[in-house]
Amino acid sequence: MKSYQQELFEKPYPGRTLIAGMTPSGTHYVQVYWIMGRSVNSRNRIFEQDGLYVRNKAFDPALMEDPSLIIYYPIRHWGDAHIVSNGDQTDTIYEGLQLRQTFEQALMNREFEPDSPHFTPRISAVIYADVQQYELSILKTYDNDPSVCLRNRYHFSRFKLGTGHCIHTYEAERDGVLKPFKGDPFEVPLFDSIEETADFYWEGINPDNRISLLVKSISVEDQTIQYAFRNKHV
Q1: What is the set of domains in the chain, with CATH numbers?
Q2: 199-213: per-residue pLDDT in tens?
Q3: Between 20 and 30 A from 158 (CA), which of 45, 114, 139, 220?
Q4: Residues 163-195: pLDDT tens digits?
């Protein structure tokens, strides 16, 4: 029987994907996020560290067409809350936390992306380093029907060593339409070495459609942050 991780690696286009979890040693929280692309506009991106945060930007500005859904900060943090998402809802969560909103309350202002006919789900996660808990969320259509927004939130009351929970945007493609992720976040492995985690996922996902990947490591002891990046364009 195939593992969820094997099924993920066999998908030609799972789309944007995020993972939240903890290293086997229990010394670091981990967030993994990658983007994929098939159009020239989507492929023309790289991840870049911006202070303690991460943004994506055009590799070749001359090729950039519409930046509205593809240029954003996937990584921010506010206090002990470390945010990762696949769109500008990173800023929505970041601003909501400053207003003392919960993760769920902040995302009530958002829905899936307006890219008909796919209506790409918005996926997000927050690690709460102070209480050692984390949450994942997906905002998606009901089978690509934009009249309905399904808001699924998953709260994990503790971490499982060496394990992350993964969620991605697309389940499959049918008749040219990308169908939204189905089911619950699934378990995938994480490693103590940030570079090993980055290599494991970068080498495992579809090489034709992968664009950029990042791993964020957060020290449990003092919340020191480290990053590892993999970019197709260098």
Answers
A1: 4-231 (3.60.20.20)
A2: 999 999 999 999 999
A3: 139
A4: 999 999 999 999 999 999 999 999 999 999 999
